[in-house]
Amino acid sequence: AQSVTQLDSQVPVFEEAPVELRCNYSSSVSVYLFWYVQYPNQGLQLLLKYLSGSTLVKGINGFEAEFNKSQTSFHLRKPSVHISDTAEYFCAVSELDAGNMLTFGGGTRLMVKP
Amino acid sequence: DSGVTQTPKHLITATGQRVTLRCSPRSGDLSVYWYQQSLDQGLQFLIQYYNGEERAKGNILERFSAQQFPDLHSELNLSSLELGDSALYFCASSPRLGGLSEAFFGQGTRLTVV
């Protein structure tokens, strides 16, 4: 069975500072990896995804993530955050042979302060 | 706008009642997924339908059921509601059976059981 751990439930950061949201996963098979963002009172929006190929994945809104197979991690980064990045961020995994189910981490609340 | 439409957006009902949540997938998408987001359980996969047939089941209670109709819209039926069923229920759709990499989420239905 697969599982996802987001190591920080909350990350406070000042505007224009860099940020890293950490995600580790566990699976016995190859996986697809995703980061979703949920703004207040809204649905889930896909930020980026890793399916195969280059381990550095670029997404929307200036976010990027790096897949590290040996450390089973998929950390999300942004070099300079804005107030508008304040939201809940979810890491998710899907096993390639299943392909039917996303397993989500517990979420990380990013709080950008002026 | 993801193209996935969920109705209603908000629903308040009493314990013991039954409700139906509706999801219209993006045009052309054959797969529909239902997820529950609650404070204590986080985001959990409930069930998946593909072209009218159930294809995968997650942590869905026996009091809950779903179906996908010939026009591909899906309904999630929740019965004998309990306070703990209060949650945000998301629907997602994708073009293919194993198409999670192309899945888009709706805005969700917020269910409050009083």
In short:
Chain A is mainly β and 114 residues long. Chain A is built from no helices and twelve strands. The chains are: A mainly beta (114), B mainly beta (114).
Indicate the topology.
The complex is a heterodimer of chains A (about 110) and B (about 110).
Chain A: E1 3-6, E2 10-14, E3 19-21, E4 23-26, E5 31-38, E6 44-50, E7 56-58, E8 64-68, E9 73-78, E10 87-95, E11 103-104, E12 108-113
Parallel strand pairs in A: 2-12
Antiparallel strand pairs in A: 1-4, 3-9, 5-6, 5-10, 7-8, 8-9, 10-11, 10-12
Chain B: E1 5-7, E2 10-13, E3 19-24, E4 31-38, E5 42-50, E6 53-57, E7 64-68, E8 74-78, E9 87-94, E10 104-105, E11 109-113
Parallel strand pairs in B: 2-11
Antiparallel strand pairs in B: 1-3, 3-8, 4-5, 4-9, 5-6, 7-8, 9-10, 9-11
Please tell me about this protein's structure.
The relative contact order of chain A is 0.33. Chain A has 114 residues and is an all-beta fold. In chain A, the strands form three sheets. In chain A, strands 2, 5, 6, 10, 11 and 12 form a six-stranded mixed sheet that branches. A four-stranded antiparallel sheet of chain A has the order 3-9-8-7, with no helix packed on it. A two-stranded antiparallel ribbon of chain A has the order 1-4. Chain A is built from no helices and twelve strands. Chain B has 114 residues and is mainly beta. Chain B is built from no helices and eleven strands. Classes of the chains: A mainly beta (114), B mainly beta (114). At the A-B interface, strand 5, strand 6, strand 10 and strand 11 of A face strand 5 and strand 10 of B.
What composes the largest sheet of chain A?
6 strands, mixed
The radius of gyration over CA of chain B amounts to 13 Å
Average pLDDT taken over every residue of chain A: 92
Shape of chain B: globular
Catalogue the unreliable spans of chain B.
none
Order of helices and strands of chain A: EEEEEEEEEEEE
- Overall form of chain A: globular
Total count of strands of chain A: 12
Q: Termini distance of chain A?
A: 41 Å
Classify the helix fraction of chain B into a percent range.
Answer: under 10%
Mean pLDDT across all amino acids of chain B: 93
Write down how many β-strands of chain B occur, each being a DSSP E stretch of 2 or more residues. 11
For the terminal residues of chain B, how far apart are their CA atoms? 31 Å
List low-pLDDT spans of chain A.
Answer: none
Largest interface here, residues on each chain? Answer: A-B, 23 and 25 residues
Strand content bin of chain B:
over 45%
Strand content of chain A: over 45%
**How many individual helices of chain A?**
0
